[in-house]
Design a protein that fits this description.
The chain has 2 domains: 222 residues, 3-Layer(aba) Sandwich (Rossmann fold), CATH 3.40.50; 167 residues, Pyruvate-ferredoxin oxidoreductase, PFOR, domain III (Pyruvate-ferredoxin Oxidoreductase, domain 3). Helix content is 34%, strand content 18%. The protein has 14 helices and 15 strands. It has a 7-stranded mixed beta sheet, with helices on both faces. A 6-stranded mixed beta sheet has the order 11-12-10-13-14-15, sandwiched between helices.
């Protein structure tokens, strides 16, 4: 429902800003723009950053969100994507713009439908007048007492070249600022106004800055003022929702049926230790599904390095006839060692296994030190060549068969999907080696 109000969006709380600060003037223009647009204040969200400008949301009778320094754009983007019907306005200073520069660029690049008002007073005004990314070259601040050596960030040029739909540069003294803010809010995509203003606490006394010098600095930099970009670009949220709507409806996955039984009467931890890229996790998942098909409850815990295709790959499957079996991390009841990478990672666990437990491994690891029953399986005894990627499932099949965890029928039933043929071949090879 749209609510038409005659009163200002500004509440009665007085501004706390320094005398002559441009913040109050810009906020008055924002109030004027909102009244021009006649928006429901409950449907307007003002998202503020840290700094003097970050105080702004409390002076408006709208919804509000206040967050961390430089992150206001991320909050605003999330709000707009989740609630596209809302009008989302970001108020941030030049300090937050520099800190959150990556967020600014990506919001512009995606053309997310938010409006960003940059209160650009050319320094960090709340924390002592330190230089920011927009401080002009030569300007004096508390951190550049001899004059700033850096070239200032062109905020408008940055967001414009990265896809923003509406970009404006001006000052807090512009008589048409309220109109420009209203235009930006009405624009369907990402809109930004870089509004230069005076910080009377620090930048003005340090640089004898005035309205005229502010406008002169923009001219000296060769930067244009006014509306710099205005183009019809579909905002990201609209494009995303259209793309999602065109997808076929998703169906819920079918539950795994219970078709078999298992002799297990308590929890059993099955550990497989191999190398990354050798399908250790997928083999463990298949065994876990076979256990579910046998009426067991299952958890799986995986461990592997960030290198993805090199190093170890460890999976622990805990199966139990009772709900909520342990997540894992304890001494295994059954272990499979398929590679040197895996052995290095679990050697200490193998040494702590009980005499009733079992380790299934290859001939090259026959010297493993463990009190458990050691089953050495030689793939060379298989009449068919066993691919390296199938070795983990072959050894797991041997372990499940000899330890009596799940049946061959349950393993075969779990070997579905795009790799069914390869999985079934590995299971049959494991069953033959287990005899």
């Amino acid at each position: 429902m749209t609510v038409t109000i005659a009163a200002p969006y500004r509440n009665e709380t007085p501004y706390p800003f320094c005398p002559g600060c441009g913040h109050g003037s810009i906020l008055d223009k924002l109030d004027e723009a909102l009244r021009q647009l006649d928006l429901d204040p409950a449907e307007v969200v003002i998202v503020t950053d840290i700094g003097c400008a970050g105080l702004s949301d409390q002076y408006f009778s709208t919804s509000a969100f206040h967050g961390l320094h430089g992150r206001s754009i991320t909050y605003a983007a999330g709000i707009k994507l989740a609630r596209p019907e809302l009008t989302v306005i970001v108020i941030m200073g030049d300090g937050g713009t520099g800190i959150g520069g990556t967020h600014l660029i990506n919001a512009a690049r995606r053309n997310i439908g938010i409006t960003v008002l940059v209160f650009n007073n050319l320094n960090f005004g709340m924390t002592g007048g330190q230089h920011s990314t927009t401080t002009p070259a030569g300007a004096r601040t508390s951190t550049t007492p001899g004059g700033n050596l850096e070239h200032p960030l062109d905020i408008c040029g940055t967001v414009g070249v990265n896809g923003a739909g509406y970009v404006y540069r001006g000052t807090s003294f512009d008589t048409d600022l309220a109109v420009r803010i209203a235009d930006a809010i009405s624009h369907p995509g990402f809109a930004l106004l870089d509004i230069w203003e005076l910080c009377t606490a620090y930048f003005v006394p340090a640089n004898k800055a005035t309205r005229r010098s502010l406008e002169g600095t923009i001219a000296e930099l060769g930067w244009n003022r006014g509306v710099l970009v205005e183009r019809p670009v579909a905002d990201y949220g609209t494009a995303y929702r259209a793309s999602a709507a065109a997808l076929p409806p998703r169906t819920r996955p079918s539950p795994i049926p219970i078709e078999f039984t298992s002799p297990l009467t308590g929890p059993c931890s099955l550990l497989v230790a191999g190398s990354a890229g050798a399908k250790v996790r997928s083999a463990a998942r298949l065994v876990g599904e076979a256990a579910i098909r046998s009426g067991l409850w299952v958890t799986q815990r995986d461990d592997y390095p960030v290198t993805v295709k090199t190093g170890h790959s460890i999976s622990e499957v805990v199966m139990a006839p009772q709900p909520q079996p342990p997540v894992g991390g304890s001494i295994p009841d059954v272990a499979v060692v398929a590679s040197e990478d895996g052995l290095r990672k679990v050697r200490g666990l193998l040494e702590k296994m009980s005499p009733e437990s079992r380790v299934v491994t290859l001939p090259e690891f026959a010297g493993i030190v463990t009190p458990a029953i050691l089953d050495v399986v030689d793939p060379a005894h298989s009449p068919e060549r066993i691919p390296k990627a199938a070795l983990a499932l072959v050894l797991l099949t041997v372990a499940c068969t000899r330890a009596g965890l799940v049946s061959a029928e349950a393993l075969r039933a779990a070997a579905a999907g795009p790799f069914a043929a390869e999985n079934l071949a590995a299971i049959e090879a494991g069953l033959r080696l287990a005899r």
